[in-house]
């Protein structure tokens, strides 16, 4: 267990000390929240709008942490030959993957705490302890499918192309899935695409937790998300096996 804990600690500290990753990852979701939730509305925004924005940007935060912290960093480490060094070392086989996922969860947690503080103290939103716990568990679990997508990018993209590929993934995923705007505000054609994207199902569950959706379809969203997670993990595993065989 100790090697896993040390690997997580050093991975988290290394990214925290990397301004080009830590600064935009930690500040972008709260900046969007402040602008769209606190500055644009006149006066205090409504509880319904506050909960909708909170759910979307919490999911957006862990999505960015997973795609950038895993996808871009893994591609860079692969290009530098760092993965070969890791494989040759006596470290546990899955400690590298575990550390990447845990770091995405930790960054997502920091972002979520920042967003909740803004919603409560600046937006006047009331959150029940059970809602905070459930939302935290959901966003932590969401790091798995998002992280699998990040590992897939890290396996197929070069260090130079990975940032561009992640930008092409992250922002369309956020917009189409309804993380920046409620799904109801999107064009009908876009809403038809959303159900095939993992972030859409995560944010729908988050909205149900915060009382913005009925809970009748929560089980369906979780089941679809689980299936997508298995597919993404399988695709990432195949991509990494092909890379290792080269």
Describe this structure in words.
By secondary structure, the protein is mainly α. The protein has one domain. It is built from 10 helices and no strands. α3 (47-80) packs antiparallel against α9. The two termini are 31 Å apart. 39% of the residues are buried.
Key traits:
246 residues, mainly alpha, 10 helices
Task: Set down the secondary structure blueprint.
Layout: H1 2-16, H2 19-39, H3 47-80, H4 82-88, H5 95-122, H6 129-156, H7 162-176, H8 188-193, H9 198-209, H10 218-244
- Major sheet details: none
Total helix count?
A: 10
Overall 3D shape: globular
User: Runs with pLDDT <50, length 5+?
Assistant: none
Helical fraction equals over 70%
What proportion of the residues form beta strands (DSSP E)?
under 5%
**Mean pLDDT reading:** 86
Structural class, judged by helices and strands?
mainly alpha
N-to-C series of helices and strands: HHHHHHHHHH
Rg, rounded, reads: 18 Å
| DSSP strand count | 0
Whole-number tally of structural domains: 1
The N- and C-terminal alpha carbons lie at a distance of: 31 Å
Short description:
This protein is an all-alpha fold and about 250 residues long.
């Amino acid at each position: 267990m100790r090697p896993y804990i040390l690997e997580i600690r050093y991975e988290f500290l290394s990214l925290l000390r990397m301004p080009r990753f830590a600064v935009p990852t930690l500040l972008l979701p709260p900046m969007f929240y402040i602008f769209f939730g606190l500055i644009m509305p006149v006066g205090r925004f409504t509880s319904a709008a506050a909960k909708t924005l909170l759910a979307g940007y919490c999911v957006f935060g862990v999505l960015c942490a997973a795609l950038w912290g895993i996808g871009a960093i893994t591609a860079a480490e692969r290009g530098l030959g760092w993965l070969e060094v890791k494989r040759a070392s006596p470290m546990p086989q899955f400690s590298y993957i575990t550390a990447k996922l845990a770091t995405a969860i930790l960054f997502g947690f920091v972002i979520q705490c920042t967003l909740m503080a803004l919603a409560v103290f600046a937006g006047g939103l009331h959150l029940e302890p059970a809602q905070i716990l459930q939302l935290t568990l959901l966003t932590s679990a969401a790091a798995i499918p998002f992280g699998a997508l990040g590992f897939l990018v890290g396996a197929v993209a070069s260090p130079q192309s990975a940032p561009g590929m992640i930008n092409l993934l992250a922002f369309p995923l956020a917009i189409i899935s309804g993380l920046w705007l409620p799904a109801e505000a999107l064009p009908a054609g876009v809403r038809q695409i959303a159900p095939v994207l993992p972030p859409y199902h995560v944010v729908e569950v988050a909205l149900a937790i915060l009382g913005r959706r009925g809970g009748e379809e929560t089980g369906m969203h979780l089941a679809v998300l689980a299936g997508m997670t298995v597919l993404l993990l399988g695709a990432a595993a195949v991509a990494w096996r092909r890379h290792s065989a080269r």
